[in-house]
Specification:
It is a single chain. The protein is α+β, with helices and mostly antiparallel strands and 192 residues long. The chain has one domain (12-189): NADH Oxidase. The chain is 36% helix and 23% strand. It has helices at residues 15-21, 35-46, 96-102, 107-111, 123-129, 132-154, 167-174; strands spanning 2-3, 48-50, 55-56, 67-73, 76-81, 86-91, 114-120, 158-159, 181-189. The strands form two sheets. A seven-stranded antiparallel beta sheet has the order 1-6-5-4-7-9-8, with helices on both faces. A two-stranded antiparallel ribbon has the order 2-3. A hairpin with a 4-residue loop joins strand 5 and strand 6. The longest helix has 23 residues, at 132-154. The model has no long low-confidence stretch (mean pLDDT 97).
């Protein structure tokens, strides 16, 4: 497990500027993201903002935190651990091409230097809220993904939301544990 750089909480762009600049970007330059960019993006998705209570950047129904985030890069697959702001390397090979196939051939998944794979353990939320908890999980992944899109703009990067994929194939490529459900893919990189 490796520590990520401390995330910034002050940026150069206002929230309004990032919202106005948010667009779906599907073409990326061939430049790997640096550790500071990766750290900031992961923190934006699920970083802890209240260490006493464990609250995160995205709201979670009843603080059940069902989301798990994987960062897929040319250097492999990494699992984000919000507690401690760390990355755990799960694989060392480049699986972006295979992930693109699982995403129905979308080129942005193949060429992005980072694909954030959002998964969920729905039971963390449905234990408390029953069937309605499923809706809360979907809402939470939307909140976290929007944070990524806005953070990307603030970092002068681009992103695109991807919902068209075969979840079983994505799970196989990324080696997602059986208890987790693949919810969303977000390719991120420097716009071409």
């Amino acid at each position: 497990m490796r520590d990520l750089p401390e995330p910034r909480q002050h940026g150069e762009k206002s929230l309004e500027e990032t919202m106005a600049g948010r667009r779906s970007i599907r073409a990326f330059r061939d430049r790997a993201l640096n550790d500071e960019e990766l750290s900031q993006l992961l923190w934006a998705a699920q970083g802890i903002t209240d260490t006493r209570r464990g609250f995160r950047t995205a709201p979670s129904a009843g603080a059940t935190f069902p989301l798990e985030i994987y960062a897929v890069t040319a250097n492999g697959i990494h699992r984000y651990h919000p507690d401690g702001h760390k990355l755990e390397q799960m694989a060392t090979d480049d699986r972006r091409a295979a992930l693109a196939v699982a995403a129905l051939g979308q080129d942005s998944v193949r060429t992005a230097p980072l694909i954030m794979v959002f998964c969920a353990v729905p039971e963390r939320t449905t234990r408390r809220y029953g069937d309605r908890g499923e809706m809360f999980v979907h809402m939470e992944v939307g909140h976290a993904a929007q944070n990524i899109h806005l953070q990307a703009v603030a970092l002068k990067l681009g992103s695109v939301p991807i919902g068209a994929f075969d979840p079983d194939r994505v799970a196989d490529v990324v080696r997602i544990p059986a208890a987790e459900t693949v919810m969303y893919l977000v390719p991120v990189g420097e716009p071409r």
